[in-house]
Structure prediction request, 173 residues.
Amino acid sequence: MREVIRSNEVEIKILPYQQIIIRGNGNSEFNNTLNKLFKLLPPTDNLRIVSNEEMVLSKLSFDQWNLIFIKEIKEEKLQIFIEKLNKISGILATNFSDAQIFFQIKGQNTYPTLNKLTHFDFREKSFKPLSAAQTLLARIDCTFIKFDDSILVSCNRSFGDYLEDRLIDAVNF
Prediction:
């Protein structure tokens, strides 16, 4: 974890999360496999999430789920999960950890700060807690996961420095 900025009632941190992208059809075999491995029943509705103390599972399209480990696990264990998932013919799992960067944003001015960088509607009626969204933030394709007290923003790691600078600018101006 690295603190990026804490100012104007907004706190932004970079978190060292790990991520697996899981593709499948969402049938009972898929659901049972994920539930057995991770103790999470995959959400059936797009842009919904389920979570526990160790991980967050979001459904981002009709055949794609993102599993984010919020408690670090050893690389060997992550690889074992992927191997177990890929043994099922209808599932394709990929370790996407090194390709993504994760920003945790929280505080009273989170939404006004983010709205300086996007036109996405962060109000409660449009973006409910325990849901996900995909949109542009500072012209970068990002995924948002909304918790009760924070938003997790992920993007391609190659855009990480640029997005960090834009977030700092948005907090300061």
User: Anything to note?
Assistant: The two ends are 25 Å apart (CA to CA).
